Each structure stands twice: as structure tokens, then as C-alpha cells.
């Protein structure tokens, strides 16, 4: 027994303790109008590791903000959310997404109109597609409306292109400009109209997932 303990101690000394298992991570790509706002809101969620603003939905490679906002590329402003699946489920992330958008407006979001601002859930695989559809049913039930009244598209993800550096963490780096834009665009006022007390205000979630 003493020999085994000595051998174990020697092995630990030579190789160190067994490495801890890496966190199971997953990615979600979501479009919901201005990517500054969606990035800012979703990165507050416990379990979200990082959020990147970018473009998805079109076929143009390496699109620029000017090209996307001008229209014709097929891309929407979107965010890529990387999250720890042991701390937040994809379904929970989708519930937060729905409460941060106007699900009845398929022409854009809030003061931003046009194809690049349409709300879309981009799914990476069959399981995400199933959960996205289930989330639409849950959102419709919560709002007391038929699913057909919701104008959020659900479609397979082709590719996500990160936006220019100056768009990343915009709300944090340009706080005054961001708050003015969000207020002037009427985002929170409309969210309150649609979701009531369940709407996401411009304050941290504080664990309410």
C-alpha cells in the first residue's frame, strides 16, 4: 500500500494533476436589428462567454458595414454568441433573444428598417433548428398570439462574418452615443409595449435568466 502511495505521489510530481475538463461551449448567431444593442444585451447573460457583432444571411464574402447597410447583399446585422452550455442553455439564450426584439416587425427593428435589420435566428444544426422553432411557439404563447403573427425568420446558418473593429463592444466604448441612439430609436419603449415587465431594459440582467 505504501509503495502504491509513493508511486502515485511520484506520478503526480512528474505529470501534475489531471487537467480539468474544458467547458462545453456552443455558438448561436442571431439577428435583431442594431447589432450594438443585441451584443450589449446578450453579453450580460450569465454563461455567455463573448458576443461578436457581424453579418450573416447573404452570399457576399467579407462584407463591409457600408455594403450591408446600403442593401442588396442579403446580409443582416447579427451577433455571434459563444456560451457555456453548463451555465446557460440554447433555449434560455433564445428566450432572452425574443425578449430583446420586436417579433412582430419583419421589415426591420425599431427605428431601423430594411433587409439588413430584419430579425433572424440562424441555426447551425438540426438540433438548433428544432429548438429555434420551439422557441417561436413559446414566444407566441407568452404573447398570446399565433405563431403566424411572429415575423422572425428561422433559417440555416451559412457563414458569419465579424464586423469591423470599431463596431465591437460599441456600447461599452461609446456609452453616451450608444445610450442616445438606443433612446432615440425607441428600442426600450417598444420592448416595454410588447413584453411588459419581461422586457429587457438597458440594465444588467443580474442573473434573471
In a nutshell, what does this entry contain?
This protein has a single domain (23-198), classed as Peptide Methionine Sulfoxide Reductase, Chain A (2-Layer Sandwich), CATH 3.30.1060.
Task: Give the secondary structure arrangement, pairings included.
Elements: H1 2-15, E1 25-31, H2 35-42, E2 48-56, H3 65-70, E3 76-84, H4 90-98, E4 108-109, E5 112-113, E6 120-123, H5 126-143, E7 153-156, E8 160-162, H6 170-173, H7 175-185, H8 187-195
Parallel strand pairs: 6-7
Antiparallel strand pairs: 1-3, 1-6, 2-3, 2-8, 4-5
Helix pairs in contact: 4-5
Structure description:
Residues 3-8, 17-21 and 201-209 have low confidence and may be disordered. The protein has helices at residues 2-15, 35-42, 65-70, 90-98, 126-143, 170-173, 175-185, 187-195, and strands at 25-31, 48-56, 76-84, 108-109, 112-113, 120-123, 153-156, 160-162. The chain has a single domain, classed as Peptide methionine sulphoxide reductase MsrA (Peptide Methionine Sulfoxide Reductase, Chain A), CATH 3.30.1060. A hairpin with a 2-residue loop joins β4 (108-109) and β5. It has a six-stranded mixed sheet, with helices on one face. It is built from eight helices and eight strands. With 209 residues, it is of the alpha+beta class.
Strand content: 15-25%
Instruction: Classify the fold: give the CATH topology.
Output: Peptide Methionine Sulfoxide Reductase, Chain A
Report the top-level CATH class.
Alpha Beta
Poorly predicted runs: 3-8, 17-21, 201-209
